[in-house]
Amino acid sequence: MAAARTFVSQQRLGRLLLYLVTAAVLVAVAFPAYWLVTTAFKYEVDTIVSPPIILPLRGTLRNFTDVLRVEHIGQFFLNSALIALVSTGLGVLLGSMAAYSLSKVYMAYRIRQVIMIWILIVRIFPPITTAIPYFVIIRGLNLSDTHVALILTHTAFTLPFVIWLMLGFFQDLPDAIDKAAIMDGCSLWQRFCQITLPLALPGIAVTAIFTFIYSWNEFLYASMLTSRTAKTLPVVIAGYMSDKFLRWGEMSALAAMMVVPVMIFAGLTQRYLVRGLTFGAVKE
């Protein structure tokens, strides 16, 4: 009887510790978002006080109105949306085609391994190491400050990630489906478009979200390759920082507004998101 009570007490203690750790992790993850939103509604004087105000008792919409009054802010929003959507579409399409070829098309083992390692190495390279070559190439092609320059750059940098992620999804699809399609006379392109892609929609949704977030938030190349015509929102946010001032309110307001399109994009793909995150977790 005493042993049973000890066991129950240990279970309750373990469950309590699990809840406490989970709550601490949730607070650590959610606090930056909370701080961003609250700072967006603070008065300027409240953003620089020490100690900082954790729970503000007053708020204002002036930071948002100041951001919306910035010249060409609408164009900058459209630039970010256009570049992120097009580069996501191209990256997912081209990366899925490459991943399907590596997973379903017969290829010598060593050749396949060399290609996959090369793709991985390209992904490992820090973006700053290729910044100057990209700048020289884009300027040589007369594409400076254009949407095409950022679309090509973002697509090139997301391709290795898309290939490796989609490769896992395609490899989890049963080979019997592909063989049955071959027996029915389907070509390689028909098998890819009409059979494999619909089955891999959960994986495509997850990949598209990560790719969109990367392109939407990318700053390094956006700041180097654009000046006004193709300027994106991360570059606008950086403009609120200088050696003389740091406008926390406007920065937070614009950053909070930038989260909305990502949430909308994730909401549109929510139908496949959970399935994609658990795709291939259980082997049959």
Task: Please write out the topology.
Elements: H1 2-40, H2 62-68, H3 73-104, H4 109-124, H5 131-140, H6 147-172, H7 175-183, H8 188-199, H9 201-217, H10 220-225, H11 233-238, H12 248-268, H13 270-277
Helix pairs in contact: 1-12, 2-12, 3-6, 3-9, 4-6, 6-9, 7-8, 9-12, 9-13
Radius of gyration, in Å, reads: 24 Å
Oligomer state of the chains in this structure? single chain
Count of runs of 4 or more consecutive helical residues:
13
Distance between the ends: 42 Å
Task: Estimate percent helicity.
Answer: over 70%
Highest-level CATH class of the largest domain:
Mainly Alpha
Beta-strand fraction estimate: under 5%
Tell how many strands the DSSP assignment holds: 0
What is the arithmetic mean of pLDDT? Answer: 85
* Full CATH superfamily name of the largest domain: MetI-like
